[in-house]
Design goal:
By secondary structure, the protein is an alpha+beta fold. It has two helices and seven strands.
């Protein structure tokens, strides 16, 4: 399965940084998931590079807090010290049908990457 195209995504929380619901960029770089949110006046930037082998699970939740029915991805991973984090984000695009397709593509891709065994990841490199 090919990696999905990079896209904009909203960060909804989960990391020890200020500023919920901030727009960033989500992409795959080799065997790393990269998620970057630029620094703003009162909020620090987020620059994550999560190796596939550190990802543990991905699940979906719905959030209606901001006035629209949003599907959130909950990606659980471990940092280099072994601490567990759950990053909450949602890939976005303006047209609803394309947004649903984009979210489905990213969810299916990440689900497949997490469930693969480490041997097959090594063979793919």
């Amino acid at each position: 399965m090919n990696a999905p195209k990079s896209c904009h995504a909203y960060y909804y929380g989960g990391l020890p940084v200020k500023g919920p619901r901030r727009k960033g960029r989500l992409r795959m770089e080799g065997d790393h998931l990269s998620f970057e949110v630029p620094e703003e006046k009162e909020n620090e930037g987020i620059h994550l590079r999560i190796p596939v082998e550190k990802m543990e699970k991905i699940s979906l939740t719905r959030d209606n807090y901001y006035g629209s029915d949003t599907v959130l991805f909950n990606l659980t991973f471990r940092d280099k010290n072994g601490k567990s984090f759950t990053l909450r984000f949602a890939p976005i695009t303006l047209i609803p049908r394309r947004r649903i397709a984009l979210q489905e593509e990213w969810f299916n891709y990440l689900s497949q990457m997490i469930q693969e065994d480490p041997v097959s990841l090594e063979l793919r490199k």
